[in-house]
TrEMBL record, chain A:
This is Uncharacterized protein. It comes from the Bacteria. It comes from Roseivivax halodurans JCM 10272.
UniProtKB/TrEMBL annotation, chain B:
Its cofactor is heme. InterPro entries: Cyt_b561_bac/Ni-Hgenase, Di-haem_cyt_TM, FDH_cytochrome_b556_subunit, Formate_DH_gsu. Its main location: membrane. This is Formate dehydrogenase subunit gamma. It comes from Roseivivax halodurans JCM 10272.
Amino acid sequence: MKGFLAGTAIVALSGVLTFFGLRTFDQSTAERYSDGSVVLLDHATSWEGTVTHTGE
Amino acid sequence: MSITDGGVRGRDFVGYRIAGAISALVFILLLAWAVFEIFDGDSFVRPEVSMQAAGTEGEAIAERNQGTLLASEVLTARTKMLDERFRTGPSPEGETPELAGGDARIVSTPLEDGTALTSAWAVPSADDAAMLQAAGRVEGLSSLPYANAALYERPAGRDWRIGISDFVTHLGAIAILGMAFLLSAILALRGRVPIRQGKSGRTVKRFGLLERTTHWMTSVSFLGLAFTGIAIAYGETLFVPLGERVMGTLGWWSTWGHVLFAPTFFLGILLMIVMWTHRNLPSKLDLNWLAKFGGMFSDDGDHPPAKKFNAGQKLIFWSAVLGGLVLVATGVTLMFPYYFLGIEGMSWAMLIHAGLAVLMIAIFLGHIYIGSIGMHGAIDAMWSGKVDRNWAEEHHSIWLDEIDTQRSPAE
């Protein structure tokens, strides 16, 4: 029982830390305008020939 | 439970067997549904409307412009406009693309059976496939308003979609439900694996606190990953019927949860490698154990002798370690898109990740079963860390002897 509680507690703690850690370094890939439309950031269109992803 | 005719027998666990029979019935029905789903053509893309170019008044464009303005040209212009809007947002300066043939609009009419239109793409004939993959490259313009969806129109994207939606998910459902049915049927027919001599009341320590904490940390993480993964892979089947908001919320939290459970899963695998590898190396005893299947199906005669871990537990250990490491490796490449792999690599990573994951869920259903309801006294090893001496004697006789020999000089 002790092992189960300790293990579950570690998972919960790690989950919370990971959540806030990722949120801190999160970079948005899209923005939503007030009219509901969405803008994708850094996405090539389908007719622009070579699709490149710079990771920037 | 009677201790007549040579000790406790599996069939004496009547309540467990009834529960097993009911579960087996439920799972065979679910299994039948999963098999039916394979042949139900729902996963094929079926166009529902046809689109044609028409003049601003709706008149047929061919009459007005001698057929020079093709529907595809209008679609192309519309796609560019929509895609531009996706990229830049609403803008009063945004220009409507000009059409070569003048003003036109798209008229859509319902299509009764559009299967024929996409069958060449979904199941290409040799000629179509050759055309699609001519000279190893694909050129063309997607008319899908969301530019990234064009990925699914590439031959590789199509193969990936077939791999995920028609292969991995269907076989995964059959593997998981099939295993659940099998285990239920074993419980119904055979009952629990008993402690033949009954519990002695005297215990022996089997796992320390660090070992148990590691086990539960990994297993809670695995369960979290399994449930969120199932929600991601099977959400359309399981949750969309409950409403699109349910799917939206569950999908959002499942993608987050799938990432949040990952670090402790990885940590647990590493700790288990350090703690248990030396006790899980194969030995000659394992062959004997496997030949008798651990004595699992018979209450007559002794269980094959084993050290701390028997062959079954070793297989579970190596499944967890090797399978877990591959899942972590492929999962990390998917958590950071385009960082380690390109689109083709990520497609493969996702197929491997999903295929291995459903297999692991099926395998670990077996582990969870035998560690809890399947075997009397087994759960104590990981719950309190102490097992009954009679249990240890029947299942891990060599290990018990080792413990007793180590103890006796000190006593």
